């Protein structure tokens, strides 16, 4: 998708479940419509927030196609395809229905702790195996390894289809180095809702958000205001969302955001093991906040 823009807000879409742990497709449809009504710029399906590690291959295919059908071309759909087995990721890229995907989001290998050269070779192999635009995903808190800025831009220079990074290191100095050396046309996307506003002020292009699942309109407005340099108005919304964002990540993701969505009546408060719903204490705090 040559004209793909990743500026603004993408939602890391949760996967709603029924009591029998099947996927709740009516709830998913309602969420996707809510995102579009709230002026979200694109959605990300099968990311880690979507509990993709617990979904079967058949479920992933069905969710992707359901998302395409529901969105119906109104906004771009990004599909999460990542893992710590490079050749399995490449196989998934062949097996999953990606014809309508605007891009793929691929998390850096977790647990293995590859060197920077290993990370480079991992993404190089993926980039060579597909013509889809690729968004790198750096989240050291979960992968236990960090994609350094020089590795990011080495990949961007060597592969035209590596077009962006979702940066969730939380390291503001590293983020500033990313901005300083950003090549033309490369997107810097925040992977941390809490620091989305300051990252945009530094030069980031937007965010792939968790809180936008439950507070889509507010977070969309905040982000678009910041991108228009209306920081005073954006800060007022940020102040209102700080406590919800604190609660969102108090235990684990997506337990917090599913707690919010359940309290809002949008989904059933069900996760697949090894994740469990928010504790009673946290859920009460979520309800009081709402």
TrEMBL record:
EC assignment: the record states 4.3.3.7
List localization entries.
Cytoplasm
Write the record's keywords in alphabetical order, separated by commas: Amino-acid biosynthesis, Cytoplasm, Diaminopimelate biosynthesis, Lyase, Lysine biosynthesis, Schiff base
**Residues annotated as catalytic:** 137, 166
Recorded catalytic activity of this chain's protein: L-aspartate 4-semialdehyde + pyruvate = (2S,4S)-4-hydroxy-2,3,4,5-tetrahydrodipicolinate + H2O + H(+)
The pathway entry for this protein reads as:
Amino-acid biosynthesis; L-lysine biosynthesis via DAP pathway; (S)-tetrahydrodipicolinate from L-aspartate: step 3/4
Q: Where mainly located?
A: cytoplasm
| UniProt-annotated site: Part of a proton relay during catalysis, residues | 48, 111
**Which residues participate in pyruvate binding?**
49, 208
GO terms for MF: 4-hydroxy-tetrahydrodipicolinate synthase activity
A Pfam family hit: DHDPS
Superkingdom, taxonomy of origin? Bacteria
Instruction: Describe the function of this protein.
Output: Catalyzes the condensation of (S)-aspartate-beta-semialdehyde [(S)-ASA] and pyruvate to 4-hydroxy-tetrahydrodipicolinate (HTPA).
Stated family: Belongs to the DapA family.
Q: How does it assemble?
A: Homotetramer; dimer of dimers.
Output this protein's name: 4-hydroxy-tetrahydrodipicolinate synthase
Tell me the organism's taxonomic lineage: Bacteria, Pseudomonadati, Bacteroidota, Chitinophagia, Chitinophagales
Gene field: dapA
